[in-house]
Design goal:
- With about 290 residues, this protein is mainly beta.
- The protein contains three helices and 18 strands.
- The strands form three sheets. A six-stranded antiparallel β-barrel has the order 3-4-5-9-8-7. It has a six-stranded antiparallel beta barrel with strand order 11-12-13-18-15-14. Strands 1-2 form a two-stranded antiparallel ribbon.
- The radius of gyration is 17 Å and the shape is globular.
- The chain starts with 8 loop residues before the first helix and ends in a 26-residue tail after the last strand.
């Protein structure tokens, strides 16, 4: 996992990622502009709608059918939950939470604090996501801060797409392309299905966990950043391995990954409520 930054882990994570705290701080506020791999020019992607958690990154998100009067949702990783890493097969569902999030504007400046009412959904099985329901609606957030939620794409990502990973924790962006998809991505005790693999330009670090992966051409969220192979080990924590349909294992040191988010959309009904029995919802159930 692109590990949460907690207590004594902080220095280890930074050094393990090959970047010192001073360097990371100096990079805050950069924008995703210019040319990325394969000759595709990235559109400017800013930080509006992203959030900083205490240990990770995230974003305020909505589905195409969300109403302005619906409670807003925040997307991050399952391994960023304040309750700790969910066990394989575990699903956190409608669990009370008062977690706070710092909302960022386009420039990456914190403009206010949002608070959760519950963990609407969280798991590290098949995927690595957490979705918090907030105490404020989309309309209230936009009225107060002038910031709109990012929209979740309803379609499977496409290989070669120019993307930006926008970290609210670091106020830093990473631009690259979707390199391909991984049948099974295994890390420690956890296995994720149909993961996004980045091209090598996205060298995400600890604290970028939960960052939205944004399609530069549409501005929509297509995935959530979650892990990378740091040391070249095979299938260990912080060193995920790729497993294909035949069981062949591939290790790609220095390559990072994300979990697709289009599958979240069918599971969200009226009033931002998760309903795992809805048609098309394939998220793991409690």
């Amino acid at each position: 996992m692109k590990k949460p930054l907690v207590g004594a882990l902080f220095t280890f994570l930074l050094l393990g990622a090959g970047i010192a705290p001073a360097t990371a701080a100096a990079d805050q506020g950069t924008a995703a502009t210019g040319t990325v791999e394969k000759g595709i020019t990235a559109q400017a992607v800013n930080f509006a709608g992203t959030v900083a958690l205490s240990n990770c990154s995230g974003s305020v998100v909505r589905t195409p059918n969300s109403l302005s009067s619906d409670p807003a949702l925040v997307l991050s990783n399952g391994h960023c939950l304040e309750t700790g890493f969910p066990d394989p097969g575990e699903v956190v569902f409608n669990k009370s939470s008062t977690r706070s999030f710092t909302l960022l504007n386009a420039a990456g400046t914190g403009v206010g604090t949002l608070r959760a009412s519950k963990i609407a959904y969280g798991t590290m099985t098949d995927t690595d996501i957490s979705v918090y329901q907030l105490t404020r609606t989309y309309a209230q957030i936009e009225s107060t801060y002038g910031i709109k939620a990012l929209e979740l794409d309803t379609a499977h990502p496409v290989q070669g797409t120019a993307i930006t990973v926008a970290s609210g924790y670091w106020k830093r962006t990473y631009s690259c392309n979707v390199d391909g998809f991984v049948y099974r991505l295994k890390e420690g005790d956890w296995t994720w299905k149909d993961s996004v693999r980045y091209t090598s330009a996205c060298q995400t670090i600890g604290g970028t966990s939960g960052s939205p992966v944004i399609d530069n051409s549409t501005g929509k969220v297509i995935a959530v950043n979650n892990t990378g192979n740091e040391d070249g080990e095979q299938c260990t924590v912080n060193n995920p391995c790729e497993v294909d349909e035949s069981g062949v294992v591939t290790v790609r040191q220095g390559i990072n990954y994300a979990q697709e988010t289009y599958g979240i959309v069918p599971c969200i009904g009226a009033g931002s409520q998760f309903d795992l029995s809805r048609t098309g919802c394939t998220l793991p159930k409690p």
